[in-house]
Amino acid sequence: MSYAEDGVVKNKVLKYATRVMRRVIGKRRKTYSSYVQSSLSLILIGFFLFAECGILNATTEIKNYDVSAKQVKQAIEQSTSYLVKANDRTGRFTYRVHLSSLYFSKQKYNILRHAGTMYALTQAWQQKPDENIKATLSRSVRFLIANCIAPIPDYEKMLGIWSLSEITYSDNPPQIKLGGAGLGLAALVSTEKILPGTISLDDLRKIGRFVLFMQNQDGSFITKYVPSKGGKDPLHVSQYYPGEAALGLLMLYQMDRSQQWLDAASKALAYIITTRRMTTSDQWSLIACARLLSLKKYPENILPRHKIIAYAQQVSMAILEEQILYSDQQQLIGCFNKEGRTTPTATRVEALFATLDILGHEDIMLKNLILSSIHSAVGFLLDAQVTEGKYAGGIPRTTGLSAVDRIFDQRAQEIRIDYVQHMLSALIRFEQLIY
């Protein structure tokens, strides 16, 4: 059997074992059979992960990601520096660039990702205070407030974070994205702590009221507001916006302590957990769940703790099942998709860290599996990062493609601010937890 074929078999065994674990974790009533299944699956997972996958004891065939504290620190500094340099005097970020001078990137901007990048920079500042980060936050928050935060016609007690064509360079009509309001709140609350006086609590409350305005009785959300379409747009659906909205509301609650923000966020997360189909690509809901569980005043009546823990277990096991641990393409090891996409890997690392926060002292075996997975994923991300030249600190959309494949996938070498944002957030969590 060739190495590539051997790798396929081992990946299948690992995925079978994790599927069994997911079924067992999801059962409310544990039976003798389920315990036997879980024991056997853990033996399989443990054997392959720790003996063969290059996480602890790699063979010469398997890529061994021995990630040092120095490497992680340098990568964080370079990613932070990239975002600082990408922010111009007006406070706007250079939204995307391309590593190839032969490729021209169409002018575009995204306010939601502007806010997300600010949020990541506040995390970088909290990890290591730096005046350059502070100055970047000052410029970028002024840009956001001056160009995007404005009243909503006929609703004087609310403010929206608007996506306008003169800012986004699109033909779309003026609109407010729920995710923009959610991440906007997260970024603004975090920035206000670093730069007091940036925005008033009254204005933050007005943005919060908009999020409540978009929420349905069952906790779900309308995810876009477009005045030219009559206001709330029920046809637009986003799997990310509700989790982002919940996170923003929780951060507002921690500043304002008004019960309405906590209740709305809890209902939103309860709806996601109990009603929505599970997805491995929504790290925001898990990050919000982890923050909710950390509160002293926990709303057990709205969302019982055990439901969050069970949800985190199920999602994390599904994420582990996606990871590539064996491949004839060594660059893909640690990634979570065969295309070598970097940002889906970084966001899953963020989700796995949130799961570790949620689990606390529970489920030690799953936590160890998650830590092993994170090590491998971080190794993949560090290999993908640009380390020298004009775009040092950036991370391309895709890695591991051949020169021929890159010709057909022109976006492979694209660097966008949210690619860097998610890698930065993932690496900061890695440094905090591991070192």
Outline the secondary-structure elements.
Elements: H1 3-26, H2 32-51, H3 69-85, E1 96-98, H4 111-127, H5 131-147, E2 149-152, E3 155-163, H6 165-168, E4 175-177, H7 178-194, H8 201-213, E5 224-226, E6 231-232, H9 241-256, H10 259-274, H11 283-293, H12 305-322, H13 343-359, H14 364-384, H15 403-408, E7 414-416, H16 417-434
Antiparallel strand pairs: 1-7, 2-3, 3-4, 4-5, 5-6
Can you tell me about this structure?
By secondary structure, the protein is of the alpha+beta class. It has a domain of 196 residues: Glycosyltransferase. The chain is 58% helix and 6% strand. The chain is built from 16 helices and seven strands. Strands 2-3-4-5-6 form a five-stranded antiparallel β-sheet. It has a two-stranded antiparallel sheet with strand order 1-7. Helix 3 runs antiparallel to helix 16 and helix 10 packs across helix 11. The protein starts with a helix and ends with a helix. The N terminus is likely disordered.
